[in-house]
Amino acid sequence: MQWETVIGLEIHAQLSTQSKIFSGSATTFGAEPNTQASLVDLAMPGTLPVLNQEAVRMAVKFGLAIEAEIGRTNVFARKNYFYPDLPKGYQTSQMDHPVVGKGHLDISLEDGTIKRVGITRAHLEEDAGKSLHEDFHGMSGIDLNRAGTPLLEIVSEPDMRSAKEAVAYVKAIHALVRYLGICDGNMAEGSLRCDCNVSVRPKGQEAFGTRAEIKNVNSFRFIEKAINHEIQRQIDLIEDGGKVVQETRLYDPSKDETRSMRGKEEANDYRYFPCPDLLPVRLEEDFLDAVRQSLPELPTQKRDRFQSQFGLSVYDASVLSASREMAEYFEQVQQACGDAKLAANWVMGELSSLLNKDGLEIEQSLVSAEQLGGLILRIKDNTISGKIAKTVFEALAAGKGATADEVIEKEGLKQVTDSGAIESMLDEVLAANAAQVEQYRASDEAKRAKMFGFFVGQAMKASKGKANPGQVNELLKQKLEG
Amino acid sequence: MALERSEVEKIAHLARLGLDEAELPHTTATLNSILGLIDQMQAVNTDGIEPLAHPLEAVQRLRADAVTETNQRAAYQAIAPAVENGLYLVPKVIE
């Protein structure tokens, strides 16, 4: 049987406000336990929440960026459940009237096509604290620093059909929230967390299969692995005559498997109701206008501009606009060298492999945009060949010079373009390979073409790669034919 | 609409209320009388009336995003039954 996968995602993005959503406590990551938990966060009797304007502004910013309807009147609700890291006994969230309604996001797939993913809603809520289950004499330790940190929960439509599409969507959301400056996107610190709803159905069937939810997957790689594992588990189960149960599962990266969180589900009845401690939030037109004015150029807009302004392919433009840092680096290189194509090739080629090799982000690059731009200028004016340029690039990365010019000067890498010098070098090469020259001259056209490469190789070797390849080709041809 | 005893038991469990055998019939009756009032309200025609999110005709005031709280951990933890290394200790919540 042919199976089709259906995936919907819930992404929790931690908003990068200074203070919490309902209190004036700091939100700094990694502080000493409970030093950022105030009376409001501890749910002491008599305290009341006061909503953080910045959290609302950030949520609206996201909503406008995905062209969503904004909840001009949005309402907070209580989601009731008991857990020690939730001191109030309910999470203040939004249910029927979220701040962000229906919108969409376009994602680029590997084959270069663009897919539109529907976003059902995004709502504001508070994070819970953290439970530490190490042994405290048979007890659990509770740190409430994170309790009350503002979250934007972004709920997608079940529009994704493979783990790869799901990852592309998460990456697009990740890039967007960072472009907007509303979330630092640090998945290792939990600033962006993902719950994956996965189901399978026979290809061609309209109705959805029963879904399982994989909770809290915290890296792009794990999202792909967890979903693929879950798809296979469900298919195996159904093909063996079993049934998928609607449940929450946990992904274990060390074993590459998902397992059921049975037991927690039993009380999954949250009895939402409007929070009487908070009044409805009304958003006025001038507030929305001000937020609209503050929107930066978004990833998709940047991608389109890179195509129209610089003539880049969809693929190149998508890669280069994938993160704000990458786009800024590319544009700086482009400005320094005035050649978008070469700038794109170098950023996506040599620079990206260097970053990958060292496990660095582009903002930590050992070669600055100005240095790379200066290097490309020297390729363009024929001071160095593309091959020597790689040597110069490596030297810059190793800190062997402040600029490409300095490296070229110091290492004597300047391309030889003096035809007299190239000619005498070629004469030496031909003299040293007299037998091959004779063979060449005795051969037919097809064979000669093959042998020609041998002489070019010898000549480039003799010049340590510094001879201008175009001139070498031309002069060598003359000498061999002549 | 009326609640069965089993539903009241379920709600009590969700709210972590320990109702004993003697209290259950009384609680069920009391809750049902509230539901009776709700049934009466639901019989009213509310077409075209916007649902009320809050009884006050007012909107939420927002505060500026500023850190105004300082670390008062020692004071807050003075009344906690058990603390260690700055953590509040509670009965173990996972097996």
From TrEMBL, chain A:
Keyword Transcription: no
Family (UniProt): Belongs to the GatB/GatE family. GatB subfamily.
Asn/Gln amidotransferase domain sequence ranges: 328-480
Gene Ontology MF terms: asparaginyl-tRNA synthase (glutamine-hydrolyzing) activity; ATP binding; glutaminyl-tRNA synthase (glutamine-hydrolyzing) activity; transferase activity
EC number: 6.3.5.-
Example of a GO biological process term: translation
Highest taxon, organism lineage: Bacteria
Enzyme class: ligase
Record's keyword terms, sorted: ATP-binding, Ligase, Nucleotide-binding, Protein biosynthesis, Transferase
Classification via InterPro entries: Asn/Gln-tRNA_amidoTrfase_suB/E (IPR017959), Asn/Gln-tRNA_Trfase_suB/E_cat (IPR006075), Asn/Gln_amidotransferase (IPR018027), Asn/Gln_tRNA_amidoTrase-B-like (IPR003789), GatB (IPR004413), GatB_C_1 (IPR042114), GatB_Yqey_C_2 (IPR023168), Gln-tRNA_amidoTrfase_suB_CS (IPR017958)
Quaternary structure, from the entry: Heterotrimer of A, B and C subunits.
Function: Allows the formation of correctly charged Asn-tRNA(Asn) or Gln-tRNA(Gln) through the transamidation of misacylated Asp-tRNA(Asn) or Glu-tRNA(Gln) in organisms which lack either or both of asparaginyl-tRNA or glutaminyl-tRNA synthetases. The reaction takes place in the presence of glutamine and ATP through an activated phospho-Asp-tRNA(Asn) or phospho-Glu-tRNA(Gln).
Name listed for the protein in its UniProt record: Aspartyl/glutamyl-tRNA(Asn/Gln) amidotransferase subunit B
Automatic annotation (TrEMBL), chain B:
Keyword Transmembrane belongs to the record: no
Broad EC category: ligase
Reactions catalysed: L-glutamyl-tRNA(Gln) + L-glutamine + ATP + H2O = L-glutaminyl-tRNA(Gln) + L-glutamate + ADP + phosphate + H(+); L-aspartyl-tRNA(Asn) + L-glutamine + ATP + H2O = L-asparaginyl-tRNA(Asn) + L-glutamate + ADP + phosphate + 2 H(+)
Complex formation: Heterotrimer of A, B and C subunits.
One of the GO biological process terms: regulation of translational fidelity
Gene Ontology MF, one: transferase activity
Role description: Allows the formation of correctly charged Asn-tRNA(Asn) or Gln-tRNA(Gln) through the transamidation of misacylated Asp-tRNA(Asn) or Glu-tRNA(Gln) in organisms which lack either or both of asparaginyl-tRNA or glutaminyl-tRNA synthetases. The reaction takes place in the presence of glutamine and ATP through an activated phospho-Asp-tRNA(Asn) or phospho-Glu-tRNA(Gln).
Enzyme Commission code(s) on record: 6.3.5.-
Protein name: Aspartyl/glutamyl-tRNA(Asn/Gln) amidotransferase subunit C
Keyword vocabulary terms for this entry: ATP-binding, Ligase, Nucleotide-binding, Protein biosynthesis, Transferase
InterPro entries reported for this sequence: Asp/Glu-ADT_sf_sub_c, GatC
Record has Isomerase as a keyword: no
Family membership noted in the UniProt record: Belongs to the GatC family.
Gene: gatC
